[in-house]
Amino acid sequence: MTGTTETYESTLLDAVENDPRLIVLTAENRAAIRGLPRKLGSRFLDTGITEQTMVGMAAGLALRGRIPVVHALATFLTMRAFEFIRTDVGIPGLPVKLVGAVPGVLSEANGPTHQALEDVALMRGIPSMRVFCPTDLGDLVTGLPAVLADPHPWYIRYCDRPVVTPHRPLQIGQAEVLEAGERDDVALVVSGALFREAWEAAGRLRQDGCAVRVINVRTVKPLDETAILDAARHVRLLVTVEDHFETGGLYSAVAEVLVRESVRARVLSINCRDRWFTPALLPDVLADAAFTPGAIAARVASALHKRVPVSAYA
Amino acid sequence: MSLLDVRELDGLAREVRRHAIRMAGGGGCFLGASLSCADLLVYLYRHFLRVDPRRLDDPARDYLLLSKGHDVPALYGTLAELGFIPRARLANHLSLADHLYWHPNRHIPGVEFHSGSLGHLLSVGMGIAYDIRITHGENRVVVLLGDGELNEGSIWEALLVAKAHGLWNLTLLVDRNGFQANERTEDLIPLEPLADKFAAFGCPVRTVDGHDFEEIHAAFEDLPFGGLAPSVIIARTIRGCGLPSIEARADRWFVRLAAAEVDALLGELDGVAPAELESEPLVVR
Hints:
heterodimer; A: alpha/beta; five-stranded mixed beta sheet; 12 helices; 38% helix; B: alpha/beta; five-stranded parallel beta sheet; 9 helices; 10% strand
């Protein structure tokens, strides 16, 4: 069920040892895979601080039948190397797995150069690309095998925060719908690192008598449209929660589904809007950006009690 | 290389140039860049690359990656002359019903990877070369680069990595025709001393006349040039080689010719008479 003893490194090592096609690359980003060089030998390739070259090489390796798992900080991987990803991995749809480290709020005090807040938008916009946004270490290691086994290119928005809830093995395109009732007031639709805060916010709202379901989206692409539409039809308020700019991420993906299916819903979006956050350690970032459980619960409660449609920035 | 071989290559290259000239009619093509590398491609596919059109997925095959991409008419012509695709298929150039457009793609048998965005295929070729090396294969990887393409930083970044990982089974072949899209390379972003630049990156370099099959052959026979590094061959070429009315003209990069001009250039190629070109040169970059 839950990855409680596994780490990302042990899970990846296990996969590489069991599938000779897998090969690990990094643009000198070794924080999560420090033990792999001596264990993998020539199946570990560090290209130095060269995100473009690494992605190009991954494409070449994939042409030889390999499944490259490449690592770099999320901003540099998805933005500096964007055209290499789009052109060399995306156009041919090669099975390259792109692992973006310290995305979103996890960049903490690094500053805006390191704040990947548009990475999901960029990766989601590449036709063949799929996007996995794990909520915590358990979600990451539970989902990783399915992502590695899938023949598509993937962007993995790395998140190793402590486990919040047990996770089922990943079914690609299926969300985890948690604590759903017959007549819920609110659905918190969450992708990625803010799951812990959203989960605790849901608990607080329940104490106030509000029926809340929590949807861990897991794969923003392909999106579990059934879970989104079901929630939109049955709850009074849909809330999207993500550490991403408002444009192009989870909120956009949910909005696309609702518009396409002509389903009308009240939606509160909790995200970074169109601002980089103030750099600091994670607890301070969460407080400053109003991403704490208390702040999320308060915004949901406020929106729920308004009779008029909720504005994007309620 | 025997006189007979050189004559055969001359004949093949002439046919490839004919194909490229015909592709410059209708919707047009990058004719000048195609003619500068036509002899190199003909040599590679006829004499160097161990690649069988009947077994294109053979993991032991050699790899040619056309990084500058827009010179693809020369590749289409070479693949047609050597049995990778039917000659008749070239009549589909730019047709919706086929995949013979202005840049190469994997729908064409013999094309290993698509290109068009400059500065990509060196790193892609390095991934292929790395896999071959760790699986102890004997295949060779050749990446054909334009000289204008060397403006791209990704080339030099990749070269650092190629040297660091000792990819001696990789060869960079530079089509040094002296031009980029609109300008002479030395007038815009000077590359010289180019051989010294590659040498400074730790790569052994050889410079050849890119239209002299014996010189080309001598260099490729000597590969790899030595050391744990990619080899570099700088082929001095002439943009538009074979057509004096196109040769070394900065404004004849992308051309779209009237039918009569195509015929006139085919005549010029055969030494009948110089062609008079009246079609306006197109600026596409």
